[in-house]
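Working notes for the structural subgroup meeting. M.R. asked for a predicted model of this chain before we commit to crystallization trials. I am recording the input and output together here so anyone reviewing the notebook later can reproduce the run.

Input as submitted:
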Amino acid sequence: MVKINLSTKKRMRTILFIVFLIIALLIGRLGYIQLIDGKRLGEMAYEQQTLDRSINPKRGTIYDATGQVLAQSSTVETVTVNPGNINKEDKEKVAKKLSEIFELDYEKILKKVSKRSSIETIAKKVDKEKTDELRKWMEENNITSGINIDEDTKRYYPNNNLASQVLGFCGSDNQGLDGIEAKYDKILSGTKGAIKRHTDAKGGEIGEEGETYVAATDGDDLVLTIDINIQSIVEKYLEEACIDNSCTDGGNIIVMNPQNGDILAMATYPDYNLNDPYAAYTDELKGIWDTQEQAEKTKSLQAVWRNRAITDTYEPGSTFKTITSSAALEEGLVTDIDKEGEFSCTGGIEVAGVRIKCWRYYRPHGSESLRQALMNSCNPVFIGLGQKMGVHTYYSYLQKFGLLEKTGIDLPGEAGSIFLAENKAGPVELATISFGQRFEITPIQLVTAVSSIANGGNLVQPRVVKAVIDSETAERTDVETKVKAQTISKETSEKVLSMMESVVSEGTGKNAKVAGYRIGGKTGTSEDGVNTNKYVTSFLGVAPIENPEVVVLVTLYNPTGEGGHQGGGVAAPVGGQIFSEILPYLEVSQGNQDEIEQVEQVEVPNIEGLTIKDAEKIVKELGLELNIENNIENLDKENTIISEQMPMEGIKVNKGTKVYVVTNIRL
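Returned structure, recorded in token form:
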């Protein structure tokens, strides 16, 4: 009989206790895994054993107000490989063919094909012509697995540069990066689908289930307020103005319907090609692009992508006198806009010990009515009105006109205004604000504020999208017009519009006249910063005065040409050119028949598909002028065909108007 001493028994009990403890812990852990963490681990196992290839949805189409396509997605394909499913003896052959078809580096492709990974991307967004060549080769070489060809989409902009800063563009993953594409990305992008396959760690197939297909949900479509015809007209004249007047910092133009806030056109110059947004966009940049550092390229690109009509602030200058006039009339400081001698210009006015000059200080305007003061753009009169109102009252009107906050336009990157706080604004600051200087607003803020003057006193929120169309049901949901506040009375509105009409008919804005139409306006010139020797010149127009349908703001930055930098001489003619084409296009009735007879109008013919020679003959007979946008030296006019024209066929224009055409020869 073997005796076990007490120490041995104690050790055995300890060992048994440890064993039971370990078993209990293992059972507890197993229970935790099965009952508590089982779902999560099951999902992880499924993800590890399931190879997903995403299917990009078709991004929603963007239409203009007339139904023309501005942005759409075309079908392309993406090629990937599962290295574990490609036979070892086929890897070099597969890599060679893939590199040949898609013009890729053979060594890099071979490395991907030979990797110990589940999936590798070979080429994205390639045309079906190339993938069909790959399919044919796979069939001929009996390659049945390891190479995947999946449907994808690629964003395409049929009008290239048109409304580039408004539309924005997409990245390689179809995500909106700017403009409407970014603002409405969730609506446009849709929901991704997937192709699922059970695999082992190397990417090889498990079981015989094959692939599971989960369909993508396409994005919804958008209908914009932008009218492609008005946008084209605006861009044409903006480019001309910036080039002719040597505007070193470009320019922008906004056309807005004051009744509902619809932005009919919004253009910034220079612009860029939406189909190639990362390319050099001017001839000067093209010459140095390859030698520039990436940081410099990025800076240049970000500058041209920016929609300056909503992101950049500026001093509005004398165009802001429309706001001061409205506030003064609403407050009853002036009741009769034609009362002679109510004001007197002596060449300047002293404010808190500082003499502020009228722009025509060397030959004062003398005795004036309010109408004459606006026509003459006389600074002392508006300074005096600001003084009578006082800081608090004046700032209350800035608030009413929405000038102390963003407009809320449905575009990304909108900036706010820059005003001194009310409690810091003294007599001199109030004086300068009254005639439009020493503060900054955005062009969209000014257009929105003046639109409330044009429509009888309603501050309407501007918008670029007017409807959303469901991709599955085709149901259309209209975006409602949003009235934010009442700014002035209808009576005040009518008086200000009447004065603005006089500015164009007899005052500083007479270069914006269009025969047969009643147009109102106000010119503006301001400094672009302090002591920069740069200027911003502008023209603000409303038409027709009897029932305004459009408000136009032309803003040109630092014109340095022979025409100078005054709004009346530089910006007002641009406003007139735009009105001369968009008012007939909108079928706005003409008022003054005597003026209509002075300038004969003709209907633009259809010259698309004709040779340059034949088109020149047709437009010349009608009293029009042909202008070839992609002009090429020694152009063969007898054989070169016109592919696009603007204005479009059927639009009535004044004789002497230029018809811009693009030929089938591309630069």
